[in-house]
Structures are given as structure tokens and as C-alpha cells.
Amino acid sequence: MDFNDIQNAWNNEKTENVVLPDNLEKIQSANMPLDKIRKNLRTELLGQIFVLFVICLLPFHSEFPSKFVGPYYFIYGIIVAISIYYLAKLFLFYKRLDKVALTTKDSLYETYYDIRLNMQLYKTFTFALAPFLMIYLAVYLFFRTPDSIEILNGNFENGKLVLKVVVFMITILLVGVLTEWWVSFYYGKYAKEIKKVIDELKEEK
Hints:
- The structure is a single chain.
- This protein has 205 residues and is mainly α.
- The chain has helices spanning 3-11, 21-28, 31-57, 69-99, 105-144, 158-203.
- Helix 3 (31-57) runs antiparallel to helix 4.
- It is elongated.
- 8% of the residues are buried.
């Protein structure tokens, strides 16, 4: 095969994934928001572990009733089990991001959709812990207001019952709203910057 044959064979190759210098520069501009996501995720993982440690120590507080220690750690064990599952997945996501090299459109697409998927995973993690937050809130209310135990015996004032139900409803709504806001603020705005680069590359086709 002479030089012309080699050149013709090269020209006939598909060039869909070939990145032009201008496009390469634009693709690599997504590295800055990606670095922000990496940094935030690392901080988040360390923060979650620290919070779990602090929660573990709460029963050692002098005012914590001894009769609640056993049930507390039973619920805490469930929380830790759930947290290990989700935090392990988020850690693996962090390791993937740490190895990402944005050099092609395909790598940019894959990274963006991986980020979106793990943003949903983070929300699921928070919502999975929400019921246990409600249990802790209920126990706290019973502990701080001893007359609340009368609700379990069927002796209660309608006004107090309605107030506690409203508190629980507001807490659930706040968990949802704050989770959406946090994910959007901490990760979403950087994901949008990457999406903007993707959209610009599509317009150049």
C-alpha cells in the first residue's frame, strides 16, 4: 500500500469524535466548574462523616434520658447503615470525577450525566434519612413536653395535636425545599455551566 492509499484510507475514517482545537479549548473550559464540584463533594463527604460522629455522641449529654439510649442507638444504627450505602456511592462518584479528563465531547457528555445522576442520588439519600429525622423530632417533643405522651393514651387536646401535626408537616416541607436548594446551590449551578458548554458545542455542529 503506497502513501496515496494510506491517505485515502485515513480520509475515509469516521471523524465524528475528532475534536478541533477550538472545540477542545471549549470542552476543557468545563474543567473549572468540574473542579468546584469535586471540591464541594469532598467537603460534603467529610462533613457528613463528622455529623454522624457528633450524632453518635449526643446520648452522652448529661440531660439525655437513660431510658432512650437503647432506642436512640437502634435508630442511629439504621441511619449509619443507610449513610454507608449512599456515602460509598458518592465517594465512588468523587473518585470517578478525580480521574476525568475532558478531551472529547463524549467525555463531557458522560461526565455531565454522571453529575446529574448523582445529584438525584444525593436527594434520595436525604429523603431516605428524613423519616428518622421525624422520629428524633417526635421523641424530642415528647421529652420536652411530657404532656405529649397523653396523645398515645388517647387523651389530648385538639389544639395541641393540630399544632404538633403542623410542626411535622412544616418540617417535612422544609427538608424537601432545603434539599432542593442545597443541591442546586452546591452542585446544580456548576452542572448548568457544563450544560452550557454542551449546548454551545451542539450549536456549532
